[in-house]
UniProtKB/TrEMBL annotation:
Keywords for the protein's UniProt record, in alphabetical order: Glycoprotein, Glycosyltransferase, Membrane, Transferase, Transmembrane, Transmembrane helix
Membrane spanning residue stretches: 21-47
Subcellular location: Membrane
A GO term, aspect molecular function: glycosyltransferase activity
Membrane topology: Single-pass type II membrane protein
Protein name: Core-2/I-branching beta-1,6-N-acetylglucosaminyltransferase family protein
Keyword field contains Oxidoreductase: no
Any single GO CC term annotated in Swiss-Prot or TrEMBL for this entry: membrane
Lineage: Eukaryota, Viridiplantae, Streptophyta, Embryophyta, Tracheophyta
Length: 380
């Protein structure tokens, strides 16, 4: 009866014998064995054909991407290009690194960093090319232009790939000082830059490179005008909200175009005390910050290092908010004799007739005449 009941059960519910577990384990074992043997045969093939010493050599030359520099050259060699992804906060922090040991453990040739603050093209570039020619070890170039401008200098030009990451700079606004600090910070990344000159696209050299280098490198002072000027355009621009960091007695005015040494460049880039005061209380139509910020800050922090004059000649005799512009009709020998010979100033506390090394503002149509007289009149 029991066998008949079993025969009557639905075949779908009959118990089916399961596959033995040891067989499945054996299958996994065989798979791993095949993989292991394959890897072994591949290793023996590589060693046999390439040699164990070559394999070890390849392994020893593979270095992790985060490995730190191991030679002094990694720290002192300037980058071949100026483009980077640092924002201003990161750039300024990096640029203010100062060696505590003043004796350089390598041969260092001090250079002048020429910093061009421009909207776009450099119409006087051919004249500057003549000025720089033959002095490659003694200078470096940095160009801050509008971000929308893309320079097309040929590889043979001294301005080729010398643009730094830039932002919009507006006349009379703190963004103009931001651009100047940005130029200084990028130039400070090259440890060989010792002096820093700010010029514009309308600026020209008045002397040859040798005279400029000797004049700046032998000076005890940096050339930035910082005058305590009474009246509405000097003290009249001071705002009492700047105190106590900046008092009326500290307030100075001077030309935007300067030459400073490395010590002062680091002070400007690293400043966080005076910047917010000028940004908030030196506003356009009453106060033009590029005429006061660096001049006041350095007068407070390092007055002993300032010659208190600019190396760049400008003509304010025609009046107005901007200096005179010189065109092709102005470019005559008599014009430059007036600038170069009819001047008196102090150089290293001694009277001197050589006061200006640069001049502005020159229109693009002045380039041709300037190139014609550059050798005879300017010695370029």
């Amino acid at each position: 009866m029991q066998s008949r009941m079993e025969e009557g059960k639905d075949p779908a519910v009959r118990a089916t014998p399961s596959r033995p577990f040891p067989l499945r384990l054996l299958q996994f074992f065989l798979v791993f064995l095949v993989i292991g043997l394959g890897a072994s045969f591949l290793s023996m093939y590589m060693i046999r054909h390439f040699g164990i010493h070559n394999v070890a050599l390849v392994q020893s030359t593979i270095k992790p991407c985060f490995e730190l520099p191991v030679t002094i050259e990694n720290w002192i060699r300037p980058s071949s290009g100026l483009l980077h992804s640092m924002n201003d906060t990161e750039l300024f922090w990096r640029a203010t690194f100062v060696p505590r040991v003043k004796n350089y453990p390598f041969e260092r040739t001090p250079k002048i960093a020429f910093m061009f603050l421009t909207k776009g093209p450099l119409p006087m570039a051919p004249l500057w090319e003549k000025f720089f020619k033959g002095n490659e070890r003694l200078y470096s170039i940095y160009v801050h232009s509008l971000p929308s401008y893309s320079a097309d200098f040929p590889p043979s030009s001294v301005f080729h790939r010398r643009q730094i990451p830039s932002q919009v700079a507006e006349w009379g606004m703190m963004s103009m000082c931001d651009a100047e600090r940005r130029l200084l910070a990028n130039a400070l990344l090259d440890i060989s830059n010792e002096w820093f000159i700010l010029v514009s696209e309308s600026c020209i050299p008045l002397q040859n490179f040798s005279i400029v280098y000797r004049y700046i490198s032998r000076s005890r002072y940096s050339f930035m005008g910082a005058v305590d000027e009474p009246g509405p355009y000097g003290r009249g621009r001071y705002d009492e909200n700047m105190a106590p960091e900046i008092n009326m007695s500290d307030w100075r005015k001077g030309s935007q175009w300067f030459e400073i040494n490395r010590e002062l460049a680091v002070k400007i880039v690293g400043d966080s005390t005076y910047y917010p005061k000028l940004k908030d209380f030196c506003l356009p139509h009453k106060c033009y910050v590029d005429e006061h910020y660096f001049q006041t800050m350095l007068t407070i922090n390092a007055p002993r290092l300032l010659a208190n004059r600019s190396l760049t000649f400008v003509d304010w005799s025609r009046g107005g908010a901007h200096p005179a512009t010189f065109g092709k009709d102005d470019i005559k020998e008599e014009f430059f004799k007036k600038i170069l010979q009819d001047q008196t100033c102090l150089y290293n506390n001694q009277p001197s007739s050589l006061c200006f090394l640069f001049a502005r503002k020159f229109s693009p149509n002045a380039l041709g005449p300037l190139l014609d007289i550059a050798t005879k009149t300017l010695g370029i």
